[in-house]
């Protein structure tokens, strides 16, 4: 082989080697640079997307939702050209791991390591999000069960507390990520067969003043994973997909539920003497809709009962002079009476509680308000009540804001529904506590006078939850929130 040919072969070989070396160097340096500054880990954590930049080492971030009650499902959505470990457990793109947390605490962090041969990043997730309001418990309940609450004012958050007032589950979003969304009425449901579900109201935002906390009902499975959303079903008076209110929701089975909604309608049946517009009055009617196996099996509307107009004590401008959307009835709570499976419904703007037949749609009885049928004295009647429950002994409990007197109270009433008489009446007051909205009360246990109270929007103070033994006059647990933050309805479930 002549020298020129040898030189050509050596030159080509050298060029190829140089190209390979340069390519490898560029590829490797590109991977490092991307890992260091450009890459972002994308996770789905308990059904919520969480983006974690890798630009800063030892950075600490919030998750949208975490739980210490069940394992947390964490899925890595993207490839970053490196090994990823969560608390020492490897995870690959497109795969899911279950992470058990013993507690949710500001001092407990989830460690995420990301690295390759040349570089490493360590970042952290807080187990207790900074997007939750500061929750300060004192004392502890000696009765089983956890407390479920959603923030009505002051953020987009819901949470579950154990009987020491410690957070064991939450969903919380920053204002930027919430984008006007908020939550209401977080609760637990247990079917007759023992199946556990959770639900909450996802509030869309502006509803043009029609209804309360308008949006959709979100259904979660027993691991707090979203499995369904519920809006109105198609009927003669409702369109499929129309929003529901966040005042209340009853889940009987996976394919059987009761929702409520508000609809602006033009009516011609306002009785004379109530100042109705002669050409028709615009009112907000309350709709109750029961759906089973995707079919509407029961519907009730307040405007189908003209006698209700005259019972209203708030928001009843039937002339539409000052209001174009008077919510004259103000439905704010509904429960099923286990004794006969009919509905008991609270109408806050009528100061009235009614039982409604779930088959005939007839009003079986009215308690309190101007249409009271049980002979309540003026001192016994409610004013702006916001919560109802049935005790194990079959008594009706009412959280009465008592807007007429300014002294919020809890009522326990034993009714003779056949003869429409009151057989027993007790009231419990906490001096200095005046609830303006959202309040709730629930009797805990049998044959004891212990109540879980959600104070809602208080006139003074920042107490959010109390559990009180009225036999002894002692508080068992008290939870406070920051000033300006108020819970929606609070409920305790075993």
From TrEMBL:
<dbReference type="InterPro" id="IPR039535">
    <property type="entry name" value="ASST-like"/>
</dbReference>
<protein>
    <recommendedName>
        <fullName>Arylsulfotransferase N-terminal domain-containing protein</fullName>
    </recommendedName>
</protein>
<dbReference type="Pfam" id="PF14269">
    <property type="entry name" value="Arylsulfotran_2"/>
</dbReference>
<dbReference type="InterPro" id="IPR011047">
    <property type="entry name" value="Quinoprotein_ADH-like_sf"/>
</dbReference>
<dbReference type="InterPro" id="IPR053143">
    <property type="entry name" value="Arylsulfate_ST"/>
</dbReference>
């Amino acid at each position: 082989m002549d020298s020129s040919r040898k030189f050509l072969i050596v030159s080509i070989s050298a060029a190829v080697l140089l190209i390979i070396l340069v390519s490898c160097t560029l590829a490797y340096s590109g991977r490092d640079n991307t890992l260091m500054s450009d890459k972002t880990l994308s996770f789905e954590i308990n059904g919520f997307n969480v983006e974690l930049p890798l630009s800063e080492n030892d950075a600490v971030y919030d998750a949208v939702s975490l739980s210490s009650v069940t394992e947390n499902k964490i899925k890595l959505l993207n490839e970053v050209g490196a090994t990823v470990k969560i608390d020492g457990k490897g995870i690959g793109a497109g795969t899911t791991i279950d992470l058990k947390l013993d507690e949710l605490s500001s001092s407990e962090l989830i460690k995420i390591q990301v690295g390759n041969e040349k570089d490493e990043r360590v970042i952290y997730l807080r187990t207790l999000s900074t997007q939750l309001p500061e929750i300060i418990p004192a004392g502890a309940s000696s009765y089983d069960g956890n407390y479920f609450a959603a923030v009505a004012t002051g953020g987009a958050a819901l949470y579950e507390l154990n009987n020491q007032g410690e957070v064991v589950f939450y969903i919380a979003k920053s204002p930027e990520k919430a984008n006007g969304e908020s939550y209401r009425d977080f609760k637990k449901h247990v079917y007759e067969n023992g199946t556990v579900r959770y639900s909450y109201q996802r509030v869309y935002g502006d509803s043009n003043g029609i209804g309360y906390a308008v949006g959709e009902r979100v259904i979660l499975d027993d691991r707090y994973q979203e499995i369904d959303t519920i809006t109105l079903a198609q009927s003669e008076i409702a369109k499929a997909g129309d929003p529901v209110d966040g005042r209340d929701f009853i889940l009987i089975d996976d394919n059987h539920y009761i929702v409520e909604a508000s609809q602006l309608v033009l009516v011609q049946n306002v009785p004379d003497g109530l100042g109705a517009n002669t050409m028709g009055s615009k009112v907000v009617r309350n709709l109750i809709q029961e759906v089973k196996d995707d079919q509407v099996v029961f519907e009730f509307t307040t405007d189908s009962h003209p006698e209700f107009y005259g019972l209203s004590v708030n928001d009843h401008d039937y002339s539409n002079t000052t209001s174009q959307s008077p919510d004259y009835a103000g439905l704010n709570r509904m429960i099923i009476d286990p004794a006969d499976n009919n509905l008991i419904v609270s109408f806050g703007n009528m100061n009235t509680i009614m039982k409604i037949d779930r088959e005939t749609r007839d009003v079986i009885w009215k308690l309190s308000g101007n249409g009271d049928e049980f002979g309540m004295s003026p001192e016994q009647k409610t004013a702006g009540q916001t919560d109802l429950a049935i005790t194990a002994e079959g008594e009706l409990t009412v959280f009465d804001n008592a807007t007429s007197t300014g002294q919020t109270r809890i009522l326990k009433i034993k009714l003779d529904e056949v003869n429409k008489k009151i057989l027993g009446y007790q009231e419990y007051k906490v001096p200095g506590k005046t609830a303006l909205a959202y309040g709730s009360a629930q009797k805990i246990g049998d044959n004891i006078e212990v109540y879980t109270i959600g104070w809602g929007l208080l006139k003074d103070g920042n107490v959010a939850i109390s559990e009180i033994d009225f036999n002894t006059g002692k508080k068992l647990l008290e939870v406070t929130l920051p000033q300006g933050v108020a819970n929606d309805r609070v409920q305790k479930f075993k």
